[in-house]
UniProtKB/TrEMBL annotation:
This is Phospholipid--sterol O-acyltransferase. Residues 1-27 form the signal peptide. The lineage of its organism: Eukaryota, Viridiplantae, Streptophyta, Embryophyta, Tracheophyta. The keyword Signal applies. One of its GO terms (molecular function) is O-acyltransferase activity. The keyword Membrane does not apply.
Length: 610
């Protein structure tokens, strides 16, 4: 038995007990009194992203020439075996009617419920990144003793746009009941963890709620039910990737053709929820005083350039324009591009129909508009940065029939540090930023959240690994115009991965806003990153601890918490962080780093972080 490991597990257990409200604390080497977090009884609500909820069939479908059929409750998303063996059948169960979002006449699918609906997409068959976005997260919770009742998933049918989610499944109604039930059960508000598209869904919920409760009670309801909103990898201004899905098809690594993927995705009204946008108003109508609302700036490049096919020239004769068309994010989200391309591409025409019906003409609100900070007590945005991320595409006609009528002639990326690059190597006409995105969502969109910070912001940059504070940069009370961008250009050592924290505890009375940027952590892996989990736990214990004196948890040091935080220092030929780690070989270790383990005597006092 590995003594130190069980010690560190007990330690984590305590953090989670306090953060998430368990009572029994049997602490090994930790004084439970120091760890008490008052009487707050939190719960966690997880809202997963696109394609991250399991769908099951609710039909009997006989697949010809195959022993594989779809029976009620069979997994549809995702059963890789059926995607490969009976693709036609599988498509029937996945696709919706593109115009009214009803099921295929022969097969219908519905989202699964419970935490397992978001953790096991295709147990045993598909172990790629799609299958287990939340699995690690949940296994940490279980491993460290979080009560089953305090973690609730809010899975949903990710094929549907907001209005259909409510109309067909009463999803937002149920989500409201989930928060209300949790409050009754645990006696406290919830912590929301939304990933990717889950953030758009959560925003929709807040807008929907405004219509449901009397205006005077709206903020009261929020204060009573939501303590902290964690926006994980949120596409605040959308992502060009969503446009690629509409025009060319995204296969998710499944063994289907891009054309097939395009047809399937085209039937999902949710496909447009993450379209890139800058601002919903034409320039002439924008209120530039910035007091009326936040105005989203434009993207680094035109998101789309299209060579119009010659056969379409006749149709386009009325537009006195050259053959090559350029579309800014604004022209994509207001429908201009789909309308023009729809003259000769049925999928673009369909996209225009859905865009109008579910987004632009949505009586609740247009989701393709910049989002103001929600009136939640604590708002934390966290995302990966400085990975190569697609920001624009050049399309050309392929000469083939629909759905393969386009080829992607060139792709524009933003790269580490924000410079622009093309796949072809040709020059780009655009304006690079200060950083790049998380490989799926561009920096421009992720970092929108910085505009929610108040007029003064504290900025800290610290290494991601355990550290003693020697390599930490801090600047206090940086002036920041409301609605304006905020850039920290402190120094970087290219060998070190940092976390840059932007924090404001004074801009809004009684509220806190923070933005955490993690170098080189990818969109999907964010949720299972041990660095993110460590920061989340420390911050959440701190945020509710009676002895916390600071607004945010201290960044001054991070001692190793788990064996995984110890590493082999090749330059010194011994374990790093020798105050906390030691070399202790255990049978089965395959490399040196694994044998560096946490010392049993490691200081586990939470107060060192306050
Ligand atoms: C949805 O559209 C399909 C095909 O156009 C039609 O058969 C069906 O009746 C429609 N359903 C509703 C509820 O409008
Ligand atoms: C812009 O917003 C300000 C403050 O809300 C308002 O006084 C002004 O009339 C607005 N201007 C336009 C053109 O809407
Ligand atoms: C193009 O022009 C023709 C004749 O001038 C007109 O009948 C037609 O409606 C126009 N089409 C569009 C899309 O404006
Ligand atoms: C930091 O960035 C700001 C805003 O982009 C710029 O004005 C300033 O000159 C930069 N400072 C340094 C030292 O590069
Ligand atoms: C920045 O940190 C200082 C010292 O901890 C604190 O007094 C101040 O309120 C912080 N500023 C903001 C904007 O949170």
């Amino acid at each position: 038995m590995n003594k130190s490991k069980s010690f560190s597990q007990a330690w984590w257990c305590i953090i989670l007990l306090l953060g998430l409200g368990l009572e029994s604390a049997s602490a090994a080497g930790v004084d439970p009194k120091l760890w008490r977090s008052g009487d707050q009884k939190f719960s966690g609500v997880i809202i997963p992203g696109f394609a991250s909820t399991r769908l099951r069939s609710w039909s009997l479908l006989d697949c010809p020439f195959s022993p594989l059929d779809f029976n009620p409750l069979d997994p549809v998303w995702l059963d890789l075996r059926k995607v490969i063996s009976v693709p036609q059948c599988w498509m029937k169960c996945m696709m919706l009617d593109p115009y009214n979002q009803t099921d295929h006449p022969e097969c219908k699918s519905r989202p699964d419920s419970g935490v397992s609906a978001i953790t096991e997409m295709d147990p045993g068959y598909f172990t790629g990144p799609l299958s287990s976005v939340w699995k690690e997260w949940v296994s940490w919770c279980v491993e460290f003793g979080v009560d089953a009742e305090s973690i609730v998933a809010a899975p949903y049918d990710w094929r549907l746009a907001g209005p259909v989610l409510e109309e067909r499944d009463l999803y937002f109604h149920r989500l409201r009941l989930t928060f209300e039930t949790l409050r009754k059960l645990r006696g406290g508000p919830s912590l929301v963890f939304a990933h990717s598209l889950g953030n758009n869904v959560f925003r929709y919920f807040l807008e929907w709620l405004k219509q449901e409760v009397p205006p005077k009670l709206y903020t009261t309801w929020i204060d009573d039910h939501i303590f902290t909103y964690h926006a994980l990898g949120a596409p605040f201004l959308g992502a060009p990737d969503a446009l690629k899905g509409v025009l060319s098809g995204v296969t998710f690594g499944l063994p289907i053709s891009e054309g097939t993927a395009r047809i399937m995705l085209g039937t999902f009204s949710s496909g447009l929820w993450m379209l890139p946008f800058s601002d919903n108003k034409p320039l002439s109508q924008r209120n530039t005083t910035k007091t009326e609302g936040l105005v989203a700036p434009d993207w680094p490049v035109n998101v789309l350039e299209v060579d119009m096919p010659t056969s379409a020239l006749a149709a386009l004769a009325n537009y006195t324009v050259p053959i090559q068309r350029f579309y800014s994010a604004q022209k994509i989200s207001d429908g201009t591009s789909f309308k023009e391309m729809g003259e000769f591409d049925p999928q673009a025409k369909l996209a225009f129909y859905q865009l109008k019906k579910y987004y632009l003409d949505n009586p609740l609100f247009n989701p393709l508009t910049p989002w103001e900070r929600p009136p939640i007590k604590n708002v934390f945005c966290m995302y990966g940065i400085n990975l190569k991320t697609e920001v624009g595409y050049q399309l050309s006609p392929s000469g083939k029939p629909y759905p393969d009528n386009w080829i992607i002639k060139d792709v524009i990326y933003e790269t580490d540090g924000g410079s622009l690059q093309t796949r072809s190597g040709l020059d780009v006409d655009g304006k690079g930023g200060v950083a790049s995105g998380d490989s799926t969502v561009p920096y421009h969109s992720l970092s929108w959240c910085k505009r929610w910070l108040g007029p003064r912001v504290n900025i800290t940059r610290a290494p991601q690994t355990a550290h003693e504070g020697s390599d930490i940069q801090e600047v206090f009370d940086v002036e920041h115009e409301h609605g304006g961008d905020l850039v920290y250009n402190g120094s970087r050592d290219s060998r070190i991965k940092y976390i840059t924290y932007y924090e404001d505890a004074v801009g809004l009375a009684g509220k806190k806003t923070a933005v955490w940027e993690f170098d080189k952590i990818d969109h999907r892996n964010l949720v299972r990153s041990p660095v993110l989990l460590r920061e989340l736990l420390l911050e959440n214990v701190h945020n509710s601890h009676p002895q916390a004196v600071r607004s945010f948890v201290s960044k001054a040091r991070r001692v190793p918490l788990r064996d995984e935080d110890c590493y082999w220092d090749y330059s010194k030929a011994k374990c790093g962080l020798l105050d906390y780690c030691e070399y202790r070989y255990v049978f089965g270790d395959v490399h040196l780093g694994q044998s560096c383990r946490l010392k049993a005597s490691t200081d586990k006092d939470i107060l060192q972080y306050f």
